[in-house]
Specification:
Elements (H helix, E strand, L loop, with lengths): L6 H20 L2 E3 L4 E3 L1 H12 L3 E2 H8 L3 H13 L3 E5 L7 E5 L1 H26 L3 H35 L2
Antiparallel strand pairs: 1-2, 3-5, 4-5
């Protein structure tokens, strides 16, 4: 007898996975060589800078998918922690370029190794699953991502509408 999940069970599994990921995001990670604890948002910013050395604030915000204000706050935190430096662009005086310090590069390299480890573990899990099932999973994931993007847009739009109605 073939067992099939209903949509409630699928959503429950998805929520559990999201919650587990949030727990990873919630707790800081220790970087031994740099001797520092960092939260996931800080780590993601360091990865983005490390992959795009000498990136400006605007492009870093776009790359991370967050506002310029939010990325500026994050950069200032990382400057205080000695992980990044800000330099005025050699091409224009009103553009700030972001670089990793030696300590920031240590975090970047350690996180790259950690990500490689995680990717290897995921690859091991997927190696036991038929390619067709993995392709189906990717298609389903892509469809769900599109659906959730629509929900986020609807929620944002309803917040804008609510704000307009209260004026």
């Amino acid at each position: 007898m073939k067992y099939s999940l209903n949509s409630d069970e699928i959503v429950d599994i998805f929520i559990k996975i999201v919650n587990q990921y949030r727990m990873i995001d919630e707790f800081p990670r220790y970087f031994g060589k740099a001797d520092i604890f960092l939260h996931m948002a800080e780590i993601q910013t360091i990865l983005a800078i490390g992959k795009n050395e000498n990136i400006n604030v605007t492009n870093l915000a776009k790359f991370r998918g967050i506002t310029k204000g939010a990325i500026s706050q994050m950069i200032n935190k990382l400057v205080k922690k000695g992980l990044v430096i800000k330099n005025i662009s050699s091409q224009t005086d009103n553009e700030v370029m972001i670089q990793l310090t030696k300590r920031g590069k240590e975090v970047f390299e350690e996180q790259k190794r950690y990500n490689e480890f995680l990717n290897q573990k995921v690859a091991e899990i997927l190696s036991g699953i038929p390619e067709e099932a993995v392709n189906d999973f990717m298609n389903i994931s892509s469809s769900l991502e599109g659906f959730f993007n629509e929900i986020v847009k609807i929620n944002k739009d309803s917040m804008k509408d609510k704000g307009k109605n209260q004026d």
